[in-house]
Every structure is written in structure tokens, then in C-alpha cells.
Write a structure and sequence with these properties.
Radius of gyration: 17 Å
Distance between the termini: 36 Å
CATH class: Alpha Beta
Number of helices: 5
Number of strands: 8
Structural class: alpha+beta
Number of domains: 1
CATH architecture: 2-Layer Sandwich
Largest sheet: 2 strands, antiparallel
Strand order of the largest sheet: 1-8
Length: about 160
């Protein structure tokens, strides 16, 4: 069953614990530039938006890779980068419409969110629950319900 990380921007405080935990989990040290999630902040407005891979159904990054270094893990639904196949051409980086692919200059390899194998550390560490790991079907139902709610209230309350 596919799951994904959803972001509630109203709950995000911009603490960046998600970035720190992600880099620690994947790199073994705190290196925010190697995080797979980035909290983009607008300081004057007091808004932060965590941005990470959407695990697209028809992923442009996968289509752009000629070396089949990106694949979808059937157990998590995450698109995973395989270092042993990546030649560092960066075509997937160019193809990603959200800018969510990273490049490790020392290893000459790309990296991206892999949902931590099904237990995303960013969701676990988020102190405000701005990041939640949910079933993708739930998201569609929630969107339909939020669209239908005002209509329901108008006619039945």
C-alpha cells in the first residue's frame, strides 16, 4: 500500500529538526545540505514550508534516468536511488519539477527521499506533527470531504 508524507504548513514552526534528523539518518552526521527534506522559510511572513519528494506516480526523474538507477520500492512506494547504478549525470535532477533531488559531489551520486524504508525519521521527530506519514488513499478521501463539506453544511445544517 502506498504511503506518503503530507505537510501541514500551518503547524510547521521552521525548527528544521526534520532536516537534521534526515541527514543524521542517511549520512551518519548532521549535514543539512545532504538532507532529503528542506524547510523553505519566508521570515517576514513567519512561514516555513517543508519540501520533499512527492514520490510521483509517473515520476519524471525515473523516466529521465537512462541507467535505471531510480526505481520504485514496492514495499514503501518510494522512488529509491541506487548508488551502484548512478553515474552522476544529473538528468534526474533536471527532470524533477520540484527540485527534490540532491547531488553528493564527493561521491558523484544523486540522493532523494526514500521514506526511510517506510519509517520516515522526519515525521517521527517533528514536534508539531506538521509532517505525517499516511496512506495515499486517505489523502484523496480527505480532499473530497473538504471539498464537499461546505456544500453539505449549506444544505443540511
Amino acid at each position: 500500500m502506498d504511503r506518503l508524507i503530507v505537510v501541514d504548513v500551518e503547524k510547521c514552526t521552521g525548527c528544521r529538526l526534520c532536516e537534521l534528523m534526515c541527514s543524521l539518518h542517511h549520512e551518519g552526521s548532521v549535514r543539512p545540505s545532504y538532507s532529503r527534506i528542506h524547510a523553505i522559510s519566508w521570515d517576514e511572513e513567519g512561514v516555513s514550508v517543508p519540501v520533499l519528494c512527492s514520490q510521483c506516480d509517473d515520476a519524471p526523474c525515473v523516466a529521465a534516468c537512462r541507467y535505471e538507477a531510480l526505481w520504485r520500492d514496492p514495499s514503501t512506494g518510494a522512488i529509491v536511488a541506487m548508488e551502484d547504478r548512478c553515474i552522476g549525470c544529473k538528468m534526474c535532477i533536471v527532470a524533477c519539477p520540484y527540485g527534490c533531488m540532491g547531488y553528493d559531489k564527493s561521491r558523484h551520486k544523486v540522493f532523494k527521499c526514500d521514506l526511510c524504508g517506510g519509517e520516515p525519521e522526519c515525521c517521527r521527530i517533528c514536534p508539531t506533527d506538521a509532517l505525517r506519514f499516511i496512506r495515499s488513499e486517505k489523502t484523496a478521501i480527505d480532499r473530497k470531504r473538504s471539498f464537499a463539506s461546505p456544500i453539505f453544511r449549506q444544505y443540511f445544517h
